[in-house]
């Protein structure tokens, strides 16, 4: 009768290698986790939409008549201000701050709460320091590129709460921007407001078009006219 082969035992050198690998993994997990995960999941940077892609998507958008009326807009129709809809343990505001700010520092013991950083504001071109605090946090705000009020009028009033909350936390529709500009924009459509920095108009309208196409939101004729006019002066690839 054939005897079973004796079980191989790990050599001490192998155990040391495994231990080093384990320690390195834990160091990466707890020290670099926020930025590492954003890189691995493709959330480290929000790429601009090519104008050619936006022009194609624009043809898909429904033009609604100005006479169409939606119920009165209320912010709470889109759920709580910033939720953790992707279940990563971090609310959307901190996700976007972590994605859009540079030179970031996180709160000690936290893997998501941004304590401070530097914003290179796409809407104005300004460089703005972000410091978390009751008097300073709102200097940097998170803008819905397609404003929630605009989305509501464009068809979101027909959605259920879960879909509206998902829209409100969609990272493709969110940008960290300087607070006063976000407040100036408010609920405006693209035909009512464009970023002060003219060089960003192409990226701004291209993202509005992509988001509206993605969520099947409508536009009005003056909005489409603005989109067409801006895109006419944009390079096809940017």
UniProtKB/TrEMBL annotation:
Positions of the GmrSD restriction endonucleases C-terminal domain: 91-228
State the UniProt keywords alphabetically: Membrane, Transmembrane, Transmembrane helix
Q: Which residues span the membrane?
A: 12-30
Q: Which InterPro entries match?
A: GmrSD_C
> Which Pfam family, giving just one, matches this sequence?
GmrSD_C
Q: What is the protein's name according to its record?
A: GmrSD restriction endonucleases C-terminal domain-containing protein
Organism in which the protein naturally occurs: Gleimia coleocanis DSM 15436
């Amino acid at each position: 009768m054939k005897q079973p082969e004796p079980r191989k035992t790990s050599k001490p050198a192998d155990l040391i290698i495994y231990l080093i690998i384990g320690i390195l993994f834990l160091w990466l997990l707890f020290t670099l986790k926020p930025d590492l995960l954003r890189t691995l999941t493709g959330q480290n940077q929000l790429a601009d939409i090519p104008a050619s892609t936006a022009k194609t998507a624009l043809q898909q958008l429904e033009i609604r008549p100005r006479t169409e009326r939606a119920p009165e807009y209320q912010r709470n129709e889109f759920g709580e201000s910033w939720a953790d809809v992707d279940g990563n343990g971090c609310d959307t505001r901190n996700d976007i701050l972590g994605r859009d700010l540079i030179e970031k520092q996180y709160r000690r013991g936290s893997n998501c709460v941004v304590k401070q950083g530097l914003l290179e504001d796409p809407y104005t071109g300004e460089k703005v320091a972000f410091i978390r605090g009751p008097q300073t946090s709102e200097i940097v705000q998170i803008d819905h590129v397609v404003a929630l009020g605009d989305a509501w009028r464009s068809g979101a009033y027909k959605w259920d709460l879960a879909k509206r909350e998902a829209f409100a936390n969609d990272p493709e529709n969110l940008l960290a921007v300087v607070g006063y500009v976000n407040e100036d924009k408010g609920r405006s459509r693209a035909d009512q407001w464009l970023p002060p920095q003219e060089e960003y108009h192409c990226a701004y309208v291209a993202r509005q078009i992509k988001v509206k196409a993605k969520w099947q939101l409508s536009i009005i004729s003056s909005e489409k006219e603005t989109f067409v006019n801006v895109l006419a002066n944009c390079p096809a690839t940017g």
